[in-house]
Amino acid sequence: MRQMHESGPANAERKFPVCRVQLGREPSANRRDPTRSCLLRVADMAGSTVVFATVGTTSFSALADTLLTAEVLAALHKQGYRKLVLQIGRGPEPQIPSGAPLQIEWYRFKPSLEPDMRDASLIVSHAGAGSILEGMRLKKLMLVVVNDALMDNHQQELAQELHARKHLLATVPSTLLATLRSMRDAPPALVPLPPADESVFPAFMATTLGLDRSE
Asked: pTM above the 0.70 mark?
């Protein structure tokens, strides 16, 4: 099921910041630090103006409801976003406000969320590890919203740790609007995850089991 609402001219001037990956100067191979080879920034450019929000396979209606408030939609519009795509899982059907400043689409599930993640410049995600890692693997600006109504919330610990390491921004539904406004006033520069070291597992097999890695 999909719902769309569109308002405003399609060719509205893009004068507000949108997100991009800003690549830094490439260091020489023998001293390259992959954790500092690029930063995720909000910067002026002609690029994607799509926000993709995902709640995963369960229900997180507080996130969808907060994103659809007039204040949050206005904040997104002021930052240059023109389309909001919601993946709502098993949550209730969202109430799309009339006169919304963004085009809004929603659906429950797809075989893969990767195309929507790739198309977005901002991903607003629940705190599930799979969604977080997929968004960071794609080097997207990640705003992770923790479901603070859950008990024994290990997802909150993960989000807070990645926030402390400047890999993403973490918040809860009640402070989502304030976080978005802070992104406009003081655009974040987030550090991507370093690439996976594909030599670790072969080295483990060679050391532990005595296997020849050349075979």
From this structure: yes
